[in-house]
Amino acid sequence: MDFDGFASHLSERATRAPAPMALARVGLGAMVFAAGVHKLLDPLAWSAYVTDWLAPVLVVSPVVFMLVNGVLEVGFGAAIVADRYTSVASAVAAVSLTATCLYLAVAFVVEGGLFGDVLARDIGLAGLAWAVLVESLRDTTAN
């Protein structure tokens, strides 16, 4: 196989692709939006991520907690995709995903490896959210 030719073909295609940060922003927004929609459609599935020791701390039931989060995530995800109020929406996503990672890390340690797969994924998503936030703040100050 001609790897150099393939790499050259990909490089040529990349020059016509959207800006990497635009792809990152749309990807983050779509993920937040899709997670919110799924929380609204199946909050019980998402409430499985609430451990027995966290449930009493919540002001509402785990299902209601997920429904409220679903509504918020749909709004913030749509804002990120539409590139409207991106700094605020991506800040909420970054802080929320970071807090989720901290919770999942505690659950991983306390519960003997529980949610390790979700923790690994959410660390990457939190990093993506912080990158989108930083870029949106740079865009705001540049204009």
TrEMBL record:
* Entries under Pfam families matching the protein: DoxX (PF07681)
Q: Which InterPro entries match?
A: DoxX (IPR032808)
* Keyword Transmembrane listed: yes
What is the membrane topology here?
Answer: Multi-pass membrane protein
- The superkingdom of the source organism is Archaea
Write out the GO cellular component annotations.
membrane
- Transmembrane feature ranges: 22-41, 53-76, 88-110
Keyword flag Transcription: no
Q: Which UniProt keywords apply?
A: Membrane, Transmembrane, Transmembrane helix
Q: Where in the cell is it found?
A: Membrane
- Name of the featured protein: DoxX protein
Which species is listed as the source?
A: Haloferax larsenii
